[in-house]
Amino acid sequence: MRMLNLGIVAHVDAGKTSLTERLLFDSGAITSLGSVDRGSTRTDGMDLERRRGITIRSAVAAFTAAGHEVHLIDTPGHADFVAEVERALGVLDGAILVLSAVEGVQAHTRVLMRTLRAMAVPTILFVNKIDRAGARETGLLADIRRLLSPAAIAVNRTTGLGTRAASVTDLEPGAELAELLAERSDAVLESYVDGLDPVLLCDELAAQARRGWVHPVFFGSAITGTGIDALRRGIVDFLPAVDPSLSEKPLTGTVFAVERDRGGRRFAVARLFSGTLAARDRITFADRSGRVTSVLDVDGRQARVPAGGIARITGLPDLRVGDRLGTTSAAPEPTRFRLPSLETVMTPAPGSTAAALFTALERLADQDPLIGLRRGPDEGSLVVSLYGEVQREVIAARLTEEFGVTAEFSPSRVVRVKRLTGTGAAVTRIGDTEPVVHWATIGFRVEPGEPDSGVRFALSAERGSLPAAFITAIEETTRATLRDRSVVDCSVTLTHTGYASPISTAADFRNLTPLVLAEAVSRAGTVVCEPWEHVDLDLPEDALSPVLALLVRLGGTPGIPSVSGDSAILDAEIPSARLRELEQTLPGLTGGAGVLTARPAGHR
Predict the structure, then answer these.
(1) Domains and CATH numbers, the chain
(2) pLDDT tens across 529-562, in order?
(3) How far apart are CA 537 and CA 223, in angstroms?
């Protein structure tokens, strides 16, 4: 049986989880149809998800369709959990992008489609809620082609649109489809001239869709089940399945999630790109190796998971999100996640301790590495990175419900970083103080790096001049210190080393490193930088002037607008701290017709 890893993505409230439930029910994978409103869906397993009616963590379920085992990954729809979505996208064979027939193309829909296209994930579109009052078809299809993909093509049409009796019928291949496919197919072009061949058009549509060149559009309703049979056929016809022969190759895979069961047992969830994996197998990852204790398949059974499978691995506590398994050169490059732009300072509330808060947050950060946990400015405080206020509310609720810890949060602020403005150096040697406090000699030279280059650690002294454990202690402490001080994009060179055997310990180097490094950074000098956003705006033409004025007032830099008919396209760059104000003000200036998408534009 061929395998296919399918992601379902959408703007919040487009009906993504309801569609997941319908696909599982109609295929017989579940015996009763769950409801988001009743909190009974299969993939929203957390109590918090059921209460709030939103998906917070990606969940995996399986069903069969036309001889294919489909691993269905339900992802969060809220923009605050975009990192969870991006982790899932990196392990997909194909995706369904869900839109509401009423709300149409929304801001986060555009962000998702742009990401799917950039990652070359073959995608089909499902227009949900055709049974709702206000549902659209022709006008919405035009919006899809204008805002999401000019290569979108409808494969069915609706009758009774906007009523409970709404239904769909398949469209016969015609001239519109031939014109789209002929751009990449000489055979279709010849057929278009000599006379349309429906079989050729269907075959070519499937071939181009599997390559991500065109995007079939299905209309239907997850609640009533209308159009779901056609969508299930489309999943098999238009998305690429895994070649079974890949199981015969060496193991490669990527960890995209970390989970814990109710008993606290930790699972690393990995998609296997090639090879197989079972209990007691030894694997390599992140320059380490280890033997797995157990491997569960997507249905929770002990099994040898083949290529294309989802493996839940236990026994390797060092296995982290983003780690690549086996001969990693054959696995796709990991996704570069969008970094959070907000942060908050957390302190334990009365009745909780700093140690309990730190332990609980470490567990959450294990599941979501972009939480970016670091020490705060005051004793016992911690700084946590955020994508938005909803995520902060979710973290607070999970701390209370899962760990019995309550915390107090400072108002969210944008993440500011420090960059070096010059080169600095500092050295502290054994004997510089009397009595000796640290039995260690450490010297650093720090230099600014290129934007987004991260922190590079290098040695100018011979590696054999210091035991490897001491060098590891210095490097780990260096990275942790710079992270706690929000210093980014720099090069740190260890210039001087020394120790006194057998007195010196790794603790001497861990304790001295922050002091010497702080002195070197101080001599280099730093500048504080704040994050900026690149925004794309789709506006009514008569709203262009007030929006331009708003962007200038917010400290932004507008680009040159493009006007076509009664609509205008505008891009700009603004400080991230002002993005929320732009999002809140835009609907009033545009009569609710403005659409905004944003992406990081670095720090300044």
Answers:
(1) 2-238 (3.40.50.300), 244-330 (2.40.30.10), 342-415 (3.30.70.870), 418-528 (3.30.230.10), 531-603 (3.30.70.240)
(2) 998 989 988 889 999 999 999 999 999 999 999 9
(3) 33
φ, ψ at 123 (rounded to 5°)? -135, 135
Q: Which two tokens stand for residue 46?
A: 């957390």
Q: Residue 398 is encoded by which pair of tokens? A: 């999970």
- Report the predicted TM-score, pTM, of the whole model to 2 decimal places: 0.71
Give the pairing type, strands 294-296 and 557-558. unpaired
| Alpha carbons within 13 A on the beta-carbon side of 169 | 4
Q: Which residues pair with 574 in a beta bridge?
A: 533
pLDDT at 55 over 50: no
Residue 471 has a pLDDT of 92
Answer for the pair 291, 228: CB distance below 8 angstroms, yes or no.
Answer: no
Which stretches of 215-294 are DSSP H helices? 228-238
Separate counts of helices (H) and strands (E) for the chain = 15, 32
With cut-offs at 50, 70 and 90, classify the pLDDT of residue 338: low
Is the pLDDT reported for residue 50 higher than 50?
no
Spell out where 449-530 has E strands.
Answer: 455-459, 490-498, 526-529
CB-based contact 112:10 (threshold 8 Å):
yes
Q: 571: closest CA among 541, 533, 545?
A: 533
Dump strand ranges (E) for 440-543: 441-448, 455-459, 490-498, 526-529, 531-540
